[in-house]
Amino acid sequence: MISIYTQTMQGTLVPFGDEAQKNTERGCWIDARNAVKDDLDRLGQEFGIAEELLADIMDADEQSRIEKEDEYTAIIVRIPVFDETDEVSFFTVPLGIVLFSDKIVTICQKSSDALEDVVKNRVRGLSIKNKSAFVLNLLGRAALTYLKYLKELNKRTNSIKQELQRSIRNNELIQLLSIQKSLVFFTTSITANELVLEKLQKSPFFHFKEDEQDLLEDVLTDNKQAIEMANIYSSILTGTMDAFASVISNNQNIVMKRLTIVSIVLMLPTLIYSFFGMNVQFPFPSATQTAVWLILVVSIAASVLGAIFLNRDSSWKGK
Question: Which of 16, 207, 223, 245 has the greatest CB tally within 10 Å of its CB?
Fold first, then answer.
């Protein structure tokens, strides 16, 4: 879906329409989210964006970079997305920012909180006319969204760990694996975005003013913080999963040992009964009923003695 926004004199973004018609000379922002083939065709035909660039932006594995063409400058970054219907709820997608002389076009295959914050005027100092500031504000909002999602992932990890301490089940382990995938996606994407920001800082195509330089430093700081948080959470999660894997292995060993002890204890009376089940003479031949009880008592005594002997190891008690 393609939406077009302009900016009022007060700096508020409004949808392009009758109310905003008089402000079109100051430029506009074309926001293409959840883009389908018809949207891509329109972007290519109406705005002259190359098909190769559109295909790259729609590629889920595309990396961050900057491209300079004759009519526009294209920046591809990766932004965080939350989709609870997906197998991995938190992931990243490419966002294409195409800068023309009179307009800005953003293209993304998913909707993101970072873009939604811009649309709902939650970003202070945003200006469509100042393209450099627009890019920095958008990347700064993406960095803050990364930080918000990382905190949410950490909360989910702690909640799942509490559940696993009560009972280790496959569902919780699968959720931890999904969180680990999200952290890997975030780490690689934020690192790639940081490289783009460093290129913007050195690029001859962008000339930042003093206040924009400060904004760029702030965005770089937020990105570095997000990278550190992602690395820390990923290390903690890896250690947690290794610890629970050791616990599962240890519990399995305890269960197997218990089953082995039970098998050995039950084997003793079976051995005695099997021996007397052969063609041998019973003790006390004149008192058959007494012999049966005697064999039963011997079998029980053998089982008890075997259990006591094998139970000397404290691991039998699960300690």
Answer: 223
